Amino acid sequence: MASQQVPHTPDAISKDETNLLKLLKMGHGIARSVLYKIFLWGTMQKEDESVEHYLLKTQGYSNSFYRKCFDQYQLKMMSDKSKECEFDVSTLFKVIKHTCGKLETSIDVWTTENDTRLEWLVTAIKNFRNDHSHKFVGVSLETLILQSMHLKNLLRGALKVAGNLYGKSDEVDQEVKKMEDDIETVRDQHLIASDISSYEAVLENEKLKHFLKIEGAKELREKYEDLCQLNPVYFLESKGALLDVSMVFTQIEVENAGQKAKGFRVPCHEILTFCRDNTTVKRKTKVQSPEVYLIEGPAGAGKTTLMKYLKSVWLNKNESILGLNDYDLLLFMECRNPSLSSFSQLLCQLMPKTNATYFREGELLKFTLNLKTLVLVDGLDELNSHSEKLFLDIINQNNKNLVVLCTSRPEKARHFKMHVPPTFHTAHLKIIGIADNKKEEFVRKYHEEMWKHGRSKQDTENLISYMKNSESHLKNHYRLPLNLVLLTWLWADDPCAVTPVTTSCELYIQTHNLMKKKLLERLTHHEDACDINLQDLEEKIKDVMCSIYKAALLSLNKDAIEYLLPETVDQIKATCKANSLPPRETLSAFFVIKVVEGEEKVSIPHKLLHDFYAAQCIVQNLFSENQKSKNQSLVQKLAVFLSMENVDPVIKQAVLSNASAEISLISTAPKPGSLKALIDDLCTTESGKINKYQSMLLHVAGIIYALHGPEVQEWLAMEIVELLRESELGVRDDNQWFDLCELTKNDPVVISHISKHISKSITITDKRIEAALLMLQEAKPKEISVSISRKTKDIPELQDLMTRIADCESQLDLAFWLDFWEPDSLPGNDQQVRIISKRCSLGKVVCHVSGSVLAEMQGSSVYLNLAMTSDLAAQEVMYQLCNLKPNFNLDGLCLHLTTNVSPGVLKKMVGIGMLCLVVSGVQDSSIKTVCEMAKAIMPQNSILMDLRFPQAEVTYDGWYDLLKNVKKAQIGVAHISIPEEVVLLQKEHDFLENFAHKKLCIRCAFRRLGKEQMREASFSDN
């Protein structure tokens, strides 16, 4: 389809454009003056109170809601009382909406034409200004007259309605006459040359901004079409296997790592708005600072996929990511790309047509900085000398219209702090991976897309069933999207090859075997290799693999992450030719090959695979794998020779046995110190540190235990641990050692050496119980967090774990999630909690215990989440809560009650700082009971931080009754949280949200939560 013809910009301003300038002046000037007068008449601010102070302090807006309502420019203006007279039309529209009394909040009232309603009149005035601001073709004299009359009618109507509404009728006539005189003056006056020249320059700038906003964005969207295709397994199927990221993307789970609300789980669709509302700054300045966000996550966690998804959402203009469509432009840079070193170069590369058509040299950057722009920076951990200059050039623009969103692996997150000035507002998130409740959806989507593209013939449900059954030992591994993709491809090829897999490294080994298998299949039909027998072909591929592994390690040494070093590629090709294998066909089985600026470049598809290849080089050298392969080949060739010479079978067998024994002496088993010596010899760094090899070393451990487990001696286990310690594994977080436990299949010797490095804090999940039992024989961490997602009655080893934890006498957070959220009729955690209650100081506790066990607990600052399912249990617990011991200081309490509990048995929880109430299984008929429960536990002048309703089956009428009852009973509640699956029309939800925010005794957030969010602890770290 042909693109729309862009209007020509004349050299001099025309009469029609002069008419347009007059309408612009009316919209920007006269209309603004009228709106300002209405604002002064209707605002409920005190005389010396700024809009910011009024909304945040007097009206009680939360910081996040306040920032959501206004843009950065408006926020800055509203913080200063003296700036109110400078408010533009857009700002006045919003402040009238939020500060003036007697106005409705319903969207319909503001958007439905009604010249008796101030809400619609104010909207129409704003729209008049917007409509003419975005026109770049002049208007006729007749249109000028008609439009000025239309504006006059709108302004007259607004003044009259506002005058009646706010008791200013005596001022209306004077204001109307002044407005009408001003419009007629502007309409009839002749613009002098200086005015025309000034407006001409403004109009030209506005046109260029408009063209960049429309044509530049269009060009970016066209460019991102191809960049939103996913093929993380290019090496398995290089042709026709591209999948649309929007078709397979499943929400990645993100956690806040910043100072504010640390540990809070952030819904993926709220990433941008959460960052915007939770920025911090090290050094404050009077000037509005730019915003830069960091999302960190391990290789394979989905950082690049998330970037592709953001591009996909923006180019399709959908609402999947809140706040994304607020940006006029979305720019993207890859830190691994060495070809760009300035922001101007990036802009010209992304928008070459727009730049050539509309802008003179250097102007594209100037006008980009005038638009609201989001810059995606993928892979700070892969910065090179050129991309570092580009990143710094973007940062050094120091422009409030630019928001920069970066990704990085955790070990290189320091690059973010090094490059971002302390005056910038920053936010820091961590990608955890795919949420537990989204893994099935991800695999299902991906496999079904493979079905559509003819890449699989296996049954999707069988794959889902396998994944569920294997989660007990691969749960953490399945959090990484790349690993789920590899699992899906392996299943599509051969389900039997997947079944024995128990560690993440074994999954990579199986994937690697699949790559070699597919190469073997292709080579048997290739004209240059089809004459080679299968056995010889396998040996030749092994020889090439040794060269590939070495190339991966050498490139890792030189930080050549994007592309392999040219000399290593030449060596691989030479090995291919020496073995009579076609180089390009062979390389394409393991690498991505593309032409960049006329030169062939070879890259490994993913950083995790790069580390895996490099690790194979280390392991092969350690166990002399290449020598073993050559030895086997010699014996096989000797056998062929003896057969051809018709040697007696008995003599032949004796000769082969002796030859095997003699040749095996050539290959020696690894000796103490040999792994450390190999790393020192093969892994070179200028600083002498081996931090960058951490992921590779984990793969080394995984490969050793997967392929040589029985051969591992204690010295080798110790060297593995010490090398990883040297790479700073566990320095930031003791929990990183659990990755090594998994890869070594909880080898007691490895865990014994790990225990020496555990001192700070560990988190024990269902998956980590076996490792923790061994670890806590020697380790005594200061802090322990237990987070169990299954029913505790189904975990027999939990008793022993509690005993080990009690021996540590640590600060303890204890969460038995399912026992709290789905409590049995009788308390299910008495036995476990009783073991640790007298020896550990408790922090956050999530459980279902009886009153007698509660009486034994101790802790100086406890946040208790406690389930109760009957009147008898509630009476016991209430008694203990009202008679706490001096060594049990309760700072926060969240009670989970079922509808079986009577409000009459509950007591007021006096002296507790934070109080939350969860009531499950609520229906319309039990709404009144919920309010009685809340009143029963709340002391006078207190508030509920949260009122949650998991598994509720409540209609719109029921929720409305709840809010009315809460209002009538004067119950103060900060949040009312209902299930995401509750059926509500959008207008019904909006009404309930507005009612809760404006009509209850304190400002309340009425929100919908998904199951995972609903089941998070009610008390976060902040």
UniProtKB/TrEMBL annotation:
Matches recorded under Gene3D superfamilies: P-loop containing nucleotide triphosphate hydrolases (3.40.50.300)
Q: Which Pfam families match?
A: NACHT (PF05729)
Q: Which domain of life is it from?
A: Eukaryota
InterPro entries per the record? NACHT_NTPase (IPR007111), P-loop_NTPase (IPR027417)
The chain positions of domain NACHT read: 291-410
PANTHER family with a match to the protein in the record: SLR5058 PROTEIN (PTHR46844)
Q: What is the protein's name according to its record?
A: NACHT domain-containing protein
* Lineage, broadest ranks: Eukaryota, Metazoa, Ecdysozoa, Arthropoda, Crustacea
